[in-house]
Design brief:
- There is one protein chain.
- The protein is an alpha+beta fold.
- Among the domains are: 109 residues, no CATH class; 68 residues.
- 26% of the residues lie in helices and 25% in strands.
- The protein has 6 helices and 14 strands.
- The chain has a 7-stranded antiparallel sheet with strand order 7-2-3-6-5-4-8, with no helix packed on it. Strands 1-14-10-11 form a 4-stranded antiparallel sheet, with no helix packed on it.
- The longest helix has 26 residues.
Length: 310
């Protein structure tokens, strides 16, 4: 049976019983997160699909100044799948997120009060301008559009740059050129996909994930990470803990012991990084040459986009 994090904590307690189970688990957590942060490990790399639905624009919309409620008429129908997408009535209007919908009243609730022009029976669009990231997202490696033979830029472009080049977000259509950090929504990051896409599309995303909580149900030790390396780091912390108080010292407390475990840990980590490089072929850096990938630009695309600075 494969060892788990609780098993490492029990081994730690055998060597340093004074810790108790709660401190032992905390030291295992600290040791594991130290290991995670020291290197971009291959076992943190994930590859998923990002999908963008086609824009919905059936019927007409009624918006009221100062109200977050939008009413659809003329054949437009709200749907639960629209929650989380963006709503706008034109290039001079706000782009707001739909947070709720009411199928009885045929209304959307927006993330903010509408401060654009009020109106009845206006054309509108519901589409995905801001792409939510997975709950464990940490950093991009690459995002590609296989249908367009295209790599989407994920670094070197800021929201300020987009605001300078396309303040109205009037540029739409494929291929998407950049994913830009936008905000946090429901606690998770969202990135603006630019130009905004009106047709259904999917992209392949490779990213570095955040580490698991070692003591969450179902948490497993990564395949390429030996349990004794985590234990070695935790033993270093245990040897630096003097104990609950002066009258109840920790027998394992010793600077020499802490230095011994730290040297053992450093030696093992160096070996693991070498093995991880060999496993993942990390001599090839994923984010290299993002600015030179635009191989399928045609004259039409160049006429519609300012490419002078990126």
């Amino acid at each position: 049976m494969a060892e788990d994090f609780d098993g490492i904590a029990r081994k730690l307690l055998l060597r340093c019983p004074k810790l108790g189970p709660f401190i032992a688990r905390d030291l295992i957590k600290s040791a594991f997160h130290d290991i995670v942060e020291i290197w971009q490990w291959s076992w943190l790399i994930k590859r998923i699909q990002l999908s963008v639905p086609a824009a919905y624009q059936n019927g007409l919309a009624t918006v009221t100044y100062g109200s977050p409620t939008v009413t659809l008429t003329g054949g437009g129908t709200v749907d639960a799948s629209h929650v989380g997408r963006q709503f706008r009535t034109g290039i001079a209007s706000p782009i707001l997120t739909i947070t709720d919908q009411d199928t009885v009243l045929n209304t959307y609730t927006l993330s903010e009060n509408w401060l654009g022009t009020a109106g009845t029976g206006q054309p509108y669009k519901v589409y995905q301008a801001y792409i939510p990231m997975p709950s464990d997202f940490h950093a991009f490696f690459s995002v590609t559009d296989p249908a367009a033979y295209w790599r989407i830029q994920t670094d070197g472009v800021s929201l300020e740059m987009l605001d300078n080049r396309d303040p109205q977000r009037s540029v739409v259509g494929s291929p998407a050129r950049a994913l830009v950090s936008y905000d946090y929504y429901n606690g998770f990051p969202r990135f603006e996909l630019w130009p905004h896409q009106m047709s259904a599309a999917f992209y392949l995303m490779t990213y570095e994930s955040r580490p698991i909580d070692p003591f969450e149900p179902g948490a497993a030790i990564p395949y390429l990470l030996p349990a004794d390396v985590i234990l070695e780091r935790a033993l270093m912390y245990a040897a630096k803990w003097p104990g609950p108080n002066r009258n109840d010292p920790n027998p394992y407390y010793s600077s020499d012991t802490a230095q011994f475990h730290e040297k053992q840990y450093d030696r093992r980590i160096g070996i693991l990084i070498k093995q991880d490089v060999e496993h993942m072929q990390r001599a090839v850096w994923y984010q290299e040459d993002q600015n030179t990938n635009q191989s399928n630009m045609n004259a039409s695309y160049m006429q519609q986009h300012d490419l002078s600075r990126w």
